[in-house]
Every structure is written in C-alpha cells, then in structure tokens.
Amino acid sequence: MNPNRRIAVINALGLACAFASTAALAQDKVVFATNWKAQAAHGGFYQAVADGTYKKYGLDVTIQQGGPQVNNRPLLPAGRIDFLMTGNLLHSFDNVKNGVPTVVVAAMFQKDPQALIAHPGQGYETFESLKKAPVALIAKDGQFSWWQWLKVTHGFKDEALKPYNYNLGPFLATPKAIQQGYSVAEPIYVEKQGKFKPVVHLLADHGFSTYSTLIEARAETVKNKPDFVQRFVDASTVGWVNYLYGERTAANAMMMKDNPEMTLDEVETSVALMKQQGVVDSGESLKNGIGAMSEARVKDFYEQMVKAGLYKPGEVDLARVATYQFVNKHVGADLKAKLAK
Amino acid sequence: MPGRPLISLQRVDKRFPTGVVALQGIDLQVAEREFVSLLGPSGCGKSTVLRLLAGLERASAGVIDSPAASAARTADTAFVFQDATLMPWATVFDNVRLPLRLAGETRAACDTRVRDVLHLVGLAGFENAYPAELSGGMRMRASIARALITRPRVMLMDEPFAALDEFTRHKLNDDLLACWQTQQFAALFVTHSVLESVFLSQRVLVMGSRQGRIVAEVRIDEPYPRSAAFRSSPSYLAACAELTAALAELHAPIDQVVR
Amino acid sequence: MLHRISPLLSLLALLATWEGLVRLAHIPHYTLPAPSLVVQTLFANFTSLAGSWWFTIKITFGALILAIVGGVWIASMFALSRRLEHALFPIAVVLQVTPVVAIAPLILIYVASTTAALLLCAWIVAFFPILSNTVLGLRAADPNLRDLFRLYRATPWQRLRLLLVPSALPYFIAGLKISGGLSLIGAVTAEMVAGAAGRETGLASRILEASFRTDTPKMFAALLLLVITGVAIFWTFNALSRVLLGRWHASEKP
Fold it and tell me: Which of A23, A135, A213, A269 is surrounded by the fewest CB atoms within 10 Å?
C-alpha cells in the first residue's frame, strides 16, 4: 500500500472508531415537562442540564416548561414526554383511580410549598382565621384538588372562592383577600410589587403531608427501561445537590432565559427560603438522600385524603401510585458532604 | 255629476332639500264625485302631487286645499299605493279594518262593514288569508278595500295597477269604476298609461317631465258605466292619440328621480 | 320519511364509527372514551351532573331573558333617537368584541355574587345580536305603511304596537335564534373561568374538574349534556320562529 493510501485508511479507521465510541456513549433523548414557568423550585433539573450531569449519565434532556394556561399532564400517558413533574400526590391518586398508567418514581420535595398568603394586620395571623376571608383566590388546579381538602378538613367555603389567574393585582388591591402561592415564590413577588411582607401559612404545617415536585413516568417505561429511569432520577438528584449546595450560576442563567420575567435576586431569595423551610432536603431525605419516598407516608397521606372525602377507602390501589425502587439510595450524599465543607 | 272643488293645489312649488325642483307653480283641482287622472312619464312629479294632497309633504310655496293636509282630526282621505302595502303579519280582515281600528273601533263593531267591502272588491271568503297567500291582483283589491272602508270623500291612487298584468288590470279598472259609482268619492288617479287614463277618467291632466305643472288637459265625455267596447271606440282612440301627441311634445330624458 | 330521519341516521353512523375506532385501535379510555362508556358514565353520575346541568340552564336562560329585556329596551331607545344611538352604539360594539374570556376574571373578582357575575358575562355575549337586530327591525317598517298610519292619524302608541313591533318581529326572532346559542356559550365560558367558585357550579365547571382529575369519560358525559342543551335551544327557537312567522314571513317559507 502506498503511504498516502495508508494514511487514508488509518484516518478512515480512526473515524470509524470515533463513531463507534460515540455510539457506545449514545445519549438517550429525554423530554421532561415541568408544571410551571422556570423558577427556583425547578433549579435542580436545570442544574443537571447546565452543568452536564445529565450528559454524564447518558441523557440528552430537554426541559419543557409549563405555565399559567398550559397543562402538560396529558402529555405523559399520551407518550409525548418521558417524565413529568407534578405538584402533589393527589394527581397520582387520580390517575391510578382512573386507570391512567403512570407511576411516581421520585419525590424531589419533602414538603409541599403550597401555601395561603394574606395581608398582614388583617386578622389572618392564625391558619384558622383564613377560612373567614371573604375572597380566596385559588387557581383551577388547586380548586379541584387541595381546596376540596381545605373545605372538608378546615371548613373553608366555596362562597369565598374566586378564580386566581396568576395576577397579583386583585390580591394586592383587596386587603381582606387571601390567595394561593408557593411559600418559596409568591411572598417574594408580593413584597416586591405590593411593598409589604405577606403572612404565609404552609398547608404542609396543617396536615397536607404530601411529597411535592414528584417525577412521574409511564408504567411501561418503568417496566421496560428501568435503567433509563434510574439514570434520570439519579442525575436529577445530583442536580439538586449541586443546585442547593454548589455553584448554580449556570442553572440560574438558563432558567432566566426560559423565564425572562424572573430576576436573579428573586431566584436567590427563593433558594434561601427553600433551604430555610426544608422544602427539598429535610426529614427522610437527610437519611436516605434527596428524592426519598416512603410507602408509609404515601399511605398515611392517602388515608387523610379519604377522611377528607376526596376518595373512598380502597378506591386507589396504592401499589400502583409509586415505586420505591429508584430512590432511598443515598445518591449524592458524598457530593453533598464535599460541598458542605 | 261633479260638484264643487274638493281638493286643489294653487300655484304650488315643491323644492326638495336635495335641490330637486319637483313642482313649479302647479294648479289643479278635483271636484266632488269627479274622476280625474294625472298622466305623465316617470319622475315628473305626479306622486309628489298626491303626497302633498295627502298631507305627507309640505309645499315650499302656494296653497294646498285638502282635508288630509289640514289639521282636521279625520282625513276623510284614502291613499292607494303602487304596492299593495298590506301588513304581512295580519290577515286580510285585519288589514282592511286598520283605518277603523286606528279610529278606535273594536273588531266586533267593524265586522259587517269589513265583510261588505271585501264583497264589494271581490274578496269575499278571503277574510282569514294572509297577504303572502294572495296573488298580486288580490292584494291590490285588499288594498282598495282598506281604502274604501272609511267611506272616504277623496281617493288618492298612485299607479295602483302598474305592477299587474293586463288582464288583471282591465278587471280591476272595471271594478274600481263600479266602486266609484257606488261610493261617489272624488278620485285623483296617477298613471303613466294613456290607455288606462282614458278608460277611467272624466278628465286627464298631463304633466311633463321637467315643467312641474299641468301642461295639457283632455276631457273624456263618455258616460258611465264604460264597457269593454269603449276601448275600441273612435272617441277612445282619438283621446288616446291626443294625449300621446301631447306627451310626445314634452318628452325629455329624465335626469332626476322625483317622488 | 327518509328525509326526516336522515339527520338521525348520520348521527348514528358517526357514533358507530367512533365506537368502532376506539375498540379496534384500542384507544385508552383516558384519551378518547367510546360513546358506550360515555353514556354509561353519564347514567352512573346522573344525579350529581343533573344539579350542575340545571344550574347551567338557569344561567343560560337568565342571561337570555336579561338580554331580551335589555336588548329590546336599548333598541327602542336607539330607534327613537338617532343621536342617542350614534353616541352609545360604539360602547355596545366595544362590549361585543371584547373577548369575554379576558374580562370574565375581572368581573368575577369585582362582583360579589358569583351567580351575578356569571349572568353578567353571559349577558354581555348574548345581548348584542338582539340589540342590533331589533334596532334594524324597528327601522324596517315599510315607509308606505308609515305614511298610511300618518294619514289615518295614528297615535305614537298605536304606531309602535301595530306597525313597529310587528315589523321588527322577524328581525328580533333572527337575533333571538343567535342569542339563544350565544347565551349558552357565554354561560359556559364564564363558568370555565369561574371554576369551582360559588355555591352552585355548572356543567362547564364539572368538565374542568373532570379534566383536572384525569376523568375523561366524565368530562365527555358532562360535555354530552351541554351539547344536548345547545341542540334543544336551537330547536326551540326554530319552532318558535315557525309558529310566529310561519304564515307570513319569507324566512319561514319552504
């Protein structure tokens, strides 16, 4: 073989090897839909994209935002997305009750940040006083889920209910009004726009013991591609560790690009609140790692909802609500220890 | 026999806000029990004459002497339009009784009179029909019946038979004359048909398209009742010829639409 | 005979196709439920859905009656005074073109009673066709008839009662046919915005609830009731039109 020919063959072989090795590290495409526009409460996921964690786990992840008029939930059973972020276990209970084949694989938040906020100095300092509010601004999603629980368990009335359209205006303008919000988000905006610190009542402190920011997948995905699911859960967990305890500038930048109305200041304040309130990392996750879930707690929450009249006893097969095979493995514990130093 | 003058226009001008001059110094009169036709091409102002006499327009100058144009409580005048102008939502009975109803009379009180006048115009049996269910000729009969119900002293008619076919028109001409002979009203009949004006009237007044007043008058002395044979008699044809000639002299293109 | 039942036949054919498609393609019930499942769900939940159905019907007809009263009253004002019409008509147009889905949230906040807010939203959607058609109708009286009434010295009241109102009737009925359907749409739109608010809730709210709780068959069941309501309204006003105009108006002639 003449020298030029040899070089050409070597190059060709080299290229072939490169292709082969890329094929070995082929990235699985993942579409992950959230339940709101990008905010600090999604930080861990954006972190895993921004700092390449997902790529390291062989996943090419696209995050699809939710939003005020967007409902991403039907996309999961329809096969249009791979994983879905949901806000509480009620959605999962409903799915199982109605025969929709989805299952929870991880719980990123140990505490649901769902809260009711009120103007200070209007007599809403106690949670019990909230049900006397003449106007309660609750959005559709809440109206048909935890509002029902508030009615039965805490005596709230539909007469006070008014639709909340994610516009702070009506709340700010009506001192006697209360509205929903995430304890780690809305109070920041209220303080900024309304120039006052609202009174915040976390539903989790009054019996709403659900996990939050759950990762849901199709039951068939869990059955047929468990390794794929495990990688996504693990990478997301690592993302959260890095986001909370490590360097999150890139993640923040990415979120602000997706949601231009958010400022860095708001994001950082929100992160601080998340840590302070133990939303992501507290209780079980301190022992078993972020994303931890326990069957006992799911069962307990379900029984409380049955008591609240949302479900009939035995109506939901809890075995199909969540699978615990992907969590409670201390993923990210070493990293956290390293960052905390 | 015609009696004293009942309605008249004396040196009447009519100028419309658009600037159109419909009438200029027009003089005409119709006596009691007289049948007069007003003949002329479209747009010559014939309808304006009727509307002035009916009190539906005011004169720009001159005097109008007519019960309908005065402040009198009852008009004693009836108007027949070219279009039957019936209320489509009401039966023939209710259409015909309208003038009496507007005067405050109840349905029961009018019953006989309405039926009689319907019989007179040949619509007996159609009391409960709706205008949409009648032919053009029958609708016009109903319109005439409505005009006659108050026993008016003056009948103003604006080309009432123009939209009908010849056969129907001839029949209605005969019936109209019969009514006139019985009821003895003064009639001013506007038409653009020479043949019709001669058949019906005692006097035919000719209007030109731009003069805005009467430019010729022809007397028809044939006695009533006038039969179909009259339409082929020498005096009829002579009168028609005279009127046709008079019109031809005045013929001019129409460039304004005048009511 | 075939002519009369052909709409029914085409409907049955459509339902059969739907049912067949779902069964053959194994479409999951939470994506597209088969008609048989929808009907089953309807019967299973009828008592609870019936209450919401009644509420929606109340709002729809309440809004329609208010639209008739308001529309006819304002139309009469406009027919009497062209100046008034010229001054106020633009406001009516603004109300008509503003999408109720955008202003409903604001109305729901500022009007204390949710029922009143729903009525108002549905009214805004429904009143305009009645207003504009009735104005047209009141002006549509045959000019020759007007002259005739003048000739016989009719009083203004006689003119209104015996001439203007009957002349306006076909136009009013045309507006009514449109507004009947619109008041249902307005009620549903307002309910969609209101969600679970208020002491009673209507069918649209139940549709929303079912959709949020991933109970697709129930969603369709509530939707079916809405469709039935819409069709019933359409038929009722068509029949009314035939009764009132059948004998004399061109619009009802075969």
Answer: A23
Among the partner residues B54, B132, B133, nearest to C151 by beta-carbon distance: B54
C101 lies in some domain: yes
- Whose CA is closest to C124, among C190, C197, C198? C190
For A159, other C-beta atoms within 10 Å of its C-beta total 15
Residue A163: its chain C contacts at CB < 8 A? 105, 108, 193-195, 197
Q: Which residues of C touch A141 (CB under 8 A)?
A: 212
Show me where the domains of chain B are located: 5-83+152-258
* Chain C residues with CB-CB distance to B83 below 8 A: 144
User: What subunits make at least 3 CB pairs under 8 angstroms with C?
Assistant: A, B
pLDDT over threshold 80, residue B248: yes
* Residue C8 belongs to a domain: no
Give the closest-approach CA distance of C167 to chain B in angstroms: 8
What's the confidence (pLDDT) of residue C254?
66
Q: Look at chain C and report how many structural domains it folds into.
A: 1
List strand residue ranges (DSSP E) for chain C, in order: none
- Sketch out chain A's domains with CATH numbers: 7-110+210-339 (3.40.190.10), 114-206 (3.40.190)
pLDDT tens column, A207-258: 999 999 999 999 999 999 999 999 999 999 999 999 999 999 999 999 999 9
8 A C-beta contact, residue A133 and residue A176: yes
Say whether residue C35 is in contact with chain A using an 8 A CB cutoff.
no
The CATH code that applies to domain B5-83+152-258 is: 3.40.50.300
For residue C154, being part of any structural domain is answered with: yes
Question: What ipTM does the predicted assembly reach?
Answer: 0.88
pTM for the model stands at 0.79
User: What residues have CB less than 8 Å from B48, skipping those under 6 apart?
Assistant: B14, B22, B23, B57, B258, B259
Chain-centroid distance, C-alpha C156 = 33
pLDDT tens for each residue of C105-117 = 888 888 888 899 9
**Would you tell me which residues 143-202 of chain C have a C-beta closer than 8 angstroms to some C-beta of chain A?**
193-199, 201
Q: Average pLDDT, stretch C144-161?
A: 91
Mean pLDDT for the stretch of residues B97-120:
92
pLDDT at A16: 60
CB-closest option in A99, A159, A165 to C30:
A99
Kindly report the average pLDDT of chain C as a whole number: 91
DSSP single-letter state for residue C92: H
Interface of C with B (CB under 8 A): 142, 144-145, 147-154, 158, 162-163, 166, 169, 247-250, 253
Contact at CB, C28 and A77, closer than 8 angstroms: yes
Write the burial class of residue B128 (CB in 10 Å: 0-12 exposed, 13-18 middle, 19+ buried).
Answer: exposed
Rounded to whole angstroms, how far apart are CA atoms A44 and A58?
Answer: 17
The angle subtended at Cα B163 by Cα B157 and Cα B169, nearest 5°, is 75
pLDDT digits (tens, 9 = 90+) for A32-84: 999 999 999 999 999 999 999 999 999 999 999 998 878 888 899 999 999 99
Instruction: CATH number of the domain at C205, please.
Output: 1.10.3720.10
**Total beta-carbon pairs less than 8 A apart between chain A and chain C:** 68
User: Edge-to-edge strand order for the sheet containing B21-31?
Assistant: B21-31, B5-15, B61-65
**Closest-CA residue in chain B for C244?**
B89
Indicate the DSSP class of residue C240.
Answer: H
The distance of B159 to chain C (nearest Cα, Å) reads 14
Q: Are A299 and A317 in contact (CB under 8 A)?
A: no
Q: What is the largest CA-CA distance in chain A?
A: 92
Tell me the C-alpha distance between A58 and A332, whole Å: 17
Query: Side chain identity at B221, as an amino acid letter?
Result: D
Residue B135 sits at the vertex; the CA angle it makes with B130 and B136, to the nearest 5 degrees, is 110
CB nearest C148 (choices: B79, B101, B131): B79
pLDDT score at B259: 44
